[in-house]
Predict the 3D structure of the following.
Amino acid sequence: VGEPGLDLFPTAAWNRLYARRGRSSARELLGYGGGQGYWPLRRAIAEYVAASRGVRVTADQVLLNRGAQQAIDQIARVLLRPGDQVWVEDPGYPVARRLFELASAVTVPVPLDRDGLLVDAGSRVAPHAKLAYVAPSHQFPLGSCMPIDRRLALLAWATRADAWVVEDDYDSEFRYPGQPVPSLQGLDRADRVIYVGTFSKTVFPALRLGYLIVPRDLIDRFAALRAAVDHMAPTLEQATLSDFIDEGHFARHLRRMRAAYRERQDALLDGAKRELNGCAVVEPADSGMHAIAWLRRGLDDEQASRRAGERNIEAPALSSYCQRLVLPPALLLGFASVPPRAIPPALRVLRSALDGGR
Ligand SMILES: Cc1ncc(COP(=O)(O)O)c(C=O)c1O
């Protein structure tokens, strides 16, 4: 479900930029370089997130890494001590939960409603948690976008509790009704938010480049961890990416993907009305790369997902992301990587998997 439309990626342009950088053999690209990232890329990211996500940032706060997964691992190592409580969304991103647990923190599942994480519920069960992990602009997997009053309530709790808020902003570029919503970080006046960005969805996952934006007071602590465990991200890729952004390819690619994903989602919604009629209803997604197919009552989503997998259709069960919350049965259907013409046949295969589950 998390795979972007790689068929749309401008591979020729990327390869040209990469080869140009390779030919230049500049010493700064071949040596150890700056541990926090290639400076022109840090600057380009700062400009991009300020303009498109309302993040308040200067380039020295942007620390390059190998994607959100490494970012969350670094956050856990720098900010948590064994036994610290961490709010995680229920249902939520299992990779984040696992990383906090690997750092010997105690994760506390906090339920969601249609507006995202229930701050009041978190405050009741773990008022003194050290950190809250959220994806406020596009919750994974339910897809909600946290409204401003909920964002302010979360920041108010973090300030009161002297806790950190991790904002995972992994795919909010793809918002279909209008512009992306501004970030939580941009509302933070108390330096509580650590912002996590990634190029896995906007460029390609195998690039393994992402970034952390941290309050100024934390820069040295994150830099020290970085120096100790992973000297730096590959510089040639970073330099190519900064050219990709500076020369307009990135903005063009985002525009193209947004339009294509809208078209792909429309094909999914249309096709589902015909092909899944009576056994599932697909709810339109306002953003992101997957939609949720709510199954007819009585169907077991884990079993449906397994049967779909046996037919080469990847459709994770919503319940597999839930810890305590019990939701109606549903499957996640990724649409970003599937061209419109391939969607109806895939839905017919899914239908046969669901019928087999009766
Ligand atoms: C909630 C969430 N955050 C982040 C990511 C991206 O992770 P990475 O940058 O490590 O590829 C994903 C990928 O699917 C995700 O679902």
